[in-house]
Amino acid sequence: MRIRTVTALTGALALSLVSGCAGSGGSAESSGTVSYWLWDSNQLPAYQACAADFARENPGLRVKITQLGWDDYWTKLTASFIAGTEPDVFTDHIQKFGQFADLKVLEPLDGLGIDPNAYQKGLADNWIGQDGHRYGAPKDWDTVALFYNQKAATDAGLTAAQLNDLSWNPKDGGTFEKAVARLTVDRNGKRGDEPGFDKNHVKVYGLAGNGGGDGDGQTQWSSFAASAGWTYTDKKRWGTEYRYDSKTFKSVIDWWFGLAKKGYMAPFTSYNSQSSPGNAQVAAGKAAATLDGAWMISTYAGFKGMKIATAVTPEGPTGKRATMMNGLADSVTKNARNKAGALKWVKYLSSDACQKTVGRYGIVFPATPDGTAAAVAAYKKKGIDVSAFTRPVADKKDFSTFSYPITNYAADVYALMHPEMQDIYGNGKSVDSLDRTTDQINLILDQ
Q: For 160, 214, 260, 265, which has the most beta carbons within 10 A of its beta carbon?
């Protein structure tokens, strides 16, 4: 029943989108204006600068930028497709791309001459649909690292060198778990690795609780699962079978959420990604460290009265460190009112000129190498060391990077995995329940 309900909702959405797009029309403003949506307010000034440069190079064209918060962004974008009021261009996420491509609401970008070699390796390839057409122009990229309170680490007797040399395994957690235990302090001042530690009355958790991770676990368990040799699906892109039921994955998840049972990780009932994300827990002094993405670098650097440092993800059973490398892209809508202008704008957004401009703001890592270099220099000027994020991209010997799972029915996978992972984290549900959930997901993919 649950599968039928989720699938039916997806089907209804598909019909709505198709009918909505069919009715899209033009506007008096469309010939000279390109509408562009993005969700990150921190990036708004950088793209306003790109828009100004674009207008100078293209007399008669201007870009109207709309910035929305993450949750509102996707709700309003979907609604706009249904109503026929979609923007000409929008910032796209790999997790959403598959469904949009399947619903045929995106314009192919094959004619833009996007050269995959002009960007960080793998970024451009992820935006090729199952039909062989390109639907996204590479925009930026991010990796995941461990953010930690320097004072908390010093008080625990942990050095930066030690935190950058951690390893883990699903049996005893390795030196990573030992470090997290050491960073944990109960209300009586006892640390997690000391006799008499009270796991039921913790003052500072070694690791923030950052939600269940849904089906991707980007800033939760993904680095550990990948460094244990696990992959989301049977294929790198457009997989037809998820592997949440594998013994390796279940052992990782059992260990990961077991940190909360031991009192080393903040409990879901008190601190989760919705009510109190990892960065908020660190900022409030409730947690000493958390895994988070490169897009949050400036946020952590801005914590008042607190110095935050970063360390690379720990080495896993495979002998490598791993991190998700996600990359956003810009997409053109199928019924863009100013399609010619939209394509010119996306071409400019993906150019070295715009990406170096964005990089100089020191907010994200643009997709081109020169754009990345500009961002690294900008962060350095601010006194921020970003090597924990850039090393995985440059050092393929010791690091492995991987993408979000790219499949059909991403919304359905989320609908099933979101409550499943919350149940395991928050209610102690057995990881063996993942067998049934995986069967449900794979049945949907098999349609």
A: 265
